[in-house]
Amino acid sequence: MTEIAAAVAALRREARATDGRRLLAVVGESHETCRAVADTATDLAVVSGDDSHDILAESVETYERQPAPHAGRLMGTTHETVVYDGVDEFSPDAVGRTVGAVAGGGLYVLLLPTDWTDRTDDFRASLAVPPFDAADPTNAFRERVLETFDHPGVAVYDADEGRLRRDGLTGRERPPPRSDGTLPADPGFPLAAYEACRTADQGRSLRALERLREPETAVVVEADRGRGKSTVAGLAAGALAAAGSEVVVTAPTRSNAATLLQRATELTGTLGARSGTEPLVTAAGGRVAYVPPTEVADRADDADAVFVDEAAGLPVATLSATLAADRAAFVTTVHGYEGAGRGFSVRFRDRLADARHTVTETRPTEPIRHAPGDPLESWSFRALALDARPAVDQLLADASLADATYRRLSTDRLRTDDHLLREVFGLLVVAHYRTEPTDLARLLDAPNLSVHALLVSGHVAAVALVAREGGLSERRRRELFDGGRIHGNMVPDLLGGQLRDPDAARPVGYRVVRVATHGVLRRSGFGSRLLSAVETDLADGADRPGFAPADYFSSGFGASPGVVDFWRQNGYRTVHLSTTRNDTSGEHSAVVVRPVTDAGRAFAARHGQGFRDRVAGVLSDGLSDLSPDVVRATLRACGADPEPLLELTDYEWRVVVGAGTGPTGYGVAPDPFRRLAVAWFLDTDAPGDTPADDIDARRERLLVRKVLQGHAWDDVTEELGFVSTGECMRTLGETVTALVDRFGGDRAARERARYD
Questions:
Q1: CA 377 vs CA 5, 245, 480: distances in Å
Q2: Angle at Cα 96 formed by Cα 92 and Cα 99, nearest 5°?
Q3: Where are the extended beta strands (E) located within 526-572?
Q4: 214, part of any domain
Q5: Do 223 and 354 fall within a single domain?
């Protein structure tokens, strides 16, 4: 162990001298040998336990052991050394979560087996979904990671041979110069807060956070990891509390907010303003208190300000709840693992823009935890493509559909063209609310996935990630129907398992997992053009192993009116709406299908009819709070025949006609009204808010809120802007009359004659 000990000592000396961080990759056949080397490299006395999927973390005072699934607990924390044990299982997400937890001058140790590229561990096996098996995933992602070990600051030790293959030294002797902070002439926060800032970047961000002294304001602090975002937010929270404000702090976990809370406590102590410690209470009556995300909705309205740390790690619904506060600050990461959870930037940004708050943004760039140009940070960005981004706007700003060329991008092409890979992955990251490092491995290696793009002059204008599903054996179909799950087959699993269709996994489907168009080209037809090309390409199975001819195409996504309309306009029809919200996006998911064969058409018709028949019941229960515009869009996209809903009895027609033009009250028998309301949306194809007959967009929302979702009259009156409950009731009566005119026929006409 003499050579490795000397190598580690040299790495540590250089890291500390430059305030940078270094990576030591330990590669070996023997798990025990790798761990013994890690023990020497990290100066840990004991590496205990038999679980081979461990995160080992060492700080100045404590030694902490975390299973890999709990690696997220290290986000927002700082350690001198972090060891990731990837010998028996390597998770890209675990690396992404932990690499940023190493402080300047620290060491990140990565343990890998000698045969890593060919080994089938649990993660690699998870990439093989039915009908593929564990031998089918490729090893492109792992080969790509190994190639990054030539990066500056990366040392490689062969534990089997006891030989240092690469010392990882950069030759640097001192850290790059930092910018000096300048104290403002007229600070709105105490000077002590600015004196605690280590860089001019932090001072500028603190200056931006001064806006929170004014009502109806929000500040977004967005940067890479290690830029001191939490520190400066803590200083702002402490300054507000010292002035008497009630400040609520939330984050995915309390440990994620530890730095923010600590800095707030330190500042109030420096000011002599603290009169309590937990929660922090100041002499002026201000407070800084941590609240779990599950409770922040109940506390936001009463707080003077809410600070959200690691905002990208929280569901959009939780982020939206914080806007009940008069003032709000959101601290979020651009790159790194937290920044790969894009619910904040993809979904929440629009809600923040529409809120009453005046928004100020600040983006510190100079690192605090380590020196600028840190080798470990740049290695992690390179290995996991954490900083992948779409082509710059200028390259595509003038592109037209005539300039675009369709390509199915093979793994080999993506592996040999890193620029293309980064544009593909970067566009997927920007366009979707949840993209993780694991998704890069899936994109490259999963046998059920294919990547498709429209290219303009070699740059990615639009991209689609498609998963092959269904076409499963009778045994698999029986397992699914008997209560099992079929991993990686979302649509067959949902429709066969939850919705009890024994033949749901028989036809072959291709699910568009994600489709994204470059920002400067949206609403220019690129997405629709790409979908059409994908369908043509995969209709016959694309001449690829395991890719059988398609019976249908599908997609599942967080439902919003615009997105649903996009799929409807491309021939996809709604077959399901989830009754629970996505944890990250805060949206209910819709599932849509487009059949291409007789088997696919039977499949789509069966499930479209099922959605038609159950949706009214679900809207009055699990989906009673779903946005009326989402309901309008998804029902209009169903495409099922409305005729079965119109088979009302003579009594039901009497009730419906009486509610519109006679003495009957709506609440006497709600069911026929619900059926007519659903039939209306199925029978009309008006996009967006385009009026149709006598039922315009506002009256459609009234049908949804009152008839389908059963909201109270007073609530519907207020939400839809009626002058009074009486006006709301009269409008519903007029709307029911329009439904009778559309669907009632002779039976309704005879009944109406009674009142005429």
A1: 24, 37, 44
A2: 125
A3: 552-558
A4: yes
A5: yes
* Residues 6 or more apart whose Cβ sits within 8 Å of residue 202: 181, 228, 231, 232, 364, 368
**Scanning the structure block, which residue is given the tokens 């159950």?**
614
Position 370 scores a pLDDT of 84
R_g (Cα) of the chain, nearest Å: 29
Instruction: Check which CATH number belongs to the domain holding 458 and give it.
Output: 3.40.630.30
Residues spanned by the domain of 727: 643-753
How many Cα neighbours within 13 Å face the side chain of 257?
26
* Domain shared by 417 and 530, yes or no: yes
CA–CA distance, 500 with 423 (Å, rounded to integer): 40
Of 346, 362, 378, the position where a domain reaches its end is 362
Q: Are residues 657 and 713 in the same domain?
A: yes
DSSP 8-class letter at 180: P
Is there a contact between 503 and 548 (Cβ–Cβ < 8 Å)? no
Q: Which amino acid is at 618?
A: V
The Cα–Cα gap between 175 and 438 comes to: 33
d(CA 594, CA 40): 58
Phi-psi region of 586 (alpha: psi -120 to 50; beta: other; left: phi over 0): left
Position 369 in a domain: no
**Residue 740 φ/ψ, nearest 5 degrees:** -65, -40
- What is the structure's pLDDT at 693? 58
pLDDT at 49: 30
Residue 61 pLDDT:
39
C-beta of residue 552 within 8 angstroms of C-beta of residue 596? yes
User: In this structure, are 214 and 282 located in the same domain?
Assistant: yes
Q: Which pLDDT score is estimated for 606?
A: 96
pTM, full prediction:
0.85
Average pLDDT by stretches of 10, the chain with 756 residues: 83 92 91 73 40 43 56 70 87 88 90 91 92 94 96 94 93 78 83 91 94 96 86 96 95 88 93 76 91 91 94 83 95 60 67 92 87 92 91 95 97 95 91 79 97 97 97 93 91 93 96 94 95 95 88 94 94 95 77 98 97 96 94 96 94 87 77 96 66 80 97 96 95 92 87 76
Residue 501, domain member (yes or no): no
* Residue-level pLDDT at 141: 97
For residues 34 and 109, state if they share a domain: yes
How many domains in the chain?
Answer: 4
**2-18 vs 31-42: helix crossing angle, rounded to 10:** 50
Based on the domain organization, do 531 and 652 belong to the same domain?
no
Nearest to 469 by CA among 454, 455, 450: 450
Instruction: Report the phi/psi class of residue 133: left, alpha or beta, with left for phi > 0 and alpha for psi in -120 to 50.
Output: beta
Q: Are residues 149 and 268 in the same domain?
A: no
| Residue 667: exposure state from Cβ atoms within 10 A (0-12, 13-18, ≥19) | exposed
CATH of residue 88's domain is 3.40.50.11040
Same domain as 462, residue 316: no
For tokens 């209470």, what's the residue? Answer: 281
- Burial of residue 257 (CB within 10 Å: 0-12, 13-18, 19+) is buried
